[in-house]
Design a protein that fits this description.
The chain is of the alpha/beta class. About 45% of the residues lie in helices and about 15% in strands. The protein folds into three domains: about 120 residues, Beta-Lactamase; about 170 residues, P-loop containing nucleotide triphosphate hydrolases (Rossmann fold); about 140 residues, Helicase, Ruva Protein, domain 3. The protein has a five-stranded antiparallel β-sheet with strand order 2-1-5-4-3. The chain has a five-stranded parallel β-sheet with strand order 7-8-11-6-12. The protein is elongated. About 0% of the residues have low confidence.
Length: about 475
Amino acid sequence: MPSDSFSAKAERIRQRVMDTLLSAFSELSEGLLIVDRDARIVWMNEQYPRHLGFSDPAEAIGKPVEEVIPNSQMRSVVTSGQPIMLDIMEFGRDSFVVMRLPVRDETGEIIGGFGVVIFDDPRRLAPIVSRFQSLRNELDDTRRKLDEARRTKYTFASFVGASPACIDVKDQARRAARSSSPVLIIGETGTGKELLAQAIHSASPRAAAPFVAVNIAAIPESLLEAEFFGVAPGAYTGADRKGRTGKFELAQGGTLFLDEIGDMSPALQAKLLRALQEKEIEAVGSNRLISVDVRIIAATSRKLHEEVAAGRFRADLFYRLNVMTLDVPPLRERLDDLRIIAESLADTVARRLGEPPRSLAPAALAYLARYNWPGNVRELSNVIERALLMSDADTLERGDFARILPGLDSDHASAAGGRARTLEVVHQNAEREAILAAIAAAAGNKAQAARSLGISRASLYEKISALGISGSTP
């Protein structure tokens, strides 16, 4: 506890600082006045009167402030106790940039107020206003870009196809768009699950709100909770002092898309279930509950009912998500759509690459139809892009694809024998077999399979996608 001598010294210093500040304001400011509780002027510096049309400050003492400065807001300050930190006051043809503050006694009671003319010409604020406007424009631009990034790129028209299987899944998706119930999209890798999720959001009443996607398989398990629910300021060593907003909050009022939900750990499954049931979340390191209004669309390449039976996925969460289910057919089951999909992809890829439009010869389409497409539409897009880059012709021919997918003319195109293969194909097949064997040995646990292969889980998923390994594998 401070000694009496220290308290006395501190009080002297405080009083001296106050006197110094008042003196500095009085000398430097073009106008400084003090009013009492009734807004009567009790003091005014010598500079102020010449701006107000008289010469002696004593002429103003004791008068209501409005008699001297008709547009003064000092009475409002002493009445409300609220400061006016920056304002422009008009006096005749002149304008002043002013600041007004209440004055309180030791008990907190308002006993008066003071006003300071910061600038006698508002134009002197121009550099400050310009800088403020620039910062505000930058903030608005950043927010606009962020909003655009959270808007959906795809609609139902983007899910190309006219086969019965395609029409059926789009009809189901349109029905799902009319409600706010959870949707579970099941399908192999590369079939367009996120495209459908975006289309559902675009056609829903939530279309104007954010669409936020989380790829669960691509985020380390230790970071997923923070990714979902956010982090409170200073929640742990190294945490951002300002905290971090989670994906649930970012998707407020809109749609949260959970890709590869079958890879979520049981512990996080329990927290996700609670958030869905209670419509509340709690940031990591916080004890404050936040209400959320979010529509969940989940997707998986796993057979979740088998995961539930094996005890790797919570049955209650499965039932909560499985309100409306879309089963997206693989490309090999809707080859009637191959031509229209391939032509659409060729146009899209050509525009992205800055290439002229290309067509596909009938023989090329017939050749592509012989392939099994384990990577589905994503793999087809990759093959078309490679063919476009390797050819300068206006039409992509059979030979352009035979260089990329050799051996499809045989009756057993996927078999190893009967036809020479490029070193690239041999390497891809060997890598595919090693990954499948590791996944099988790990009973479907891809994190464990990645460790046995000596790669990260994210790298494993990249290879699964690039090699077109079916999501239905264990």
